[in-house]
Amino acid sequence: MIILDHTAVLALCRGHRFLSGLAVVEAPDPAQRAHVPALCLISASLELPGVAAHVGALPGLEFDPLDFAACAAVEQAVSSGIDWRHAHAVHAAVSGAVDGQVLSATPEAYSGTGVWVVDIGKP
Q: DSSP strand E in the chain: where?
């Protein structure tokens, strides 16, 4: 599973070619689409107003809710020192049937989490 953190969402909105390709192609199976955790979307929207409306219209993205299990995991991650903007992406990467890959412009933020991070470059 591919997960976009807030930096990847911002890069997508700023025209990142690879991410744009992921976001506009709707895979028939929702599990094969790129995922955006809710807190990552909020973080990106706080930095660049209008992001949620923009990415919400893209057919190649799925949005992971902040349900009770995610809230508990994010709380634990933040308590252990992970920035809240990255914590939901960490949870999304490790909570599925298969480990996810987080796409990020700040891969160093995931150091020590055990999460597989793909550096998308600086926006």
A: 2-4, 34-37, 61-64, 101-104, 116-119
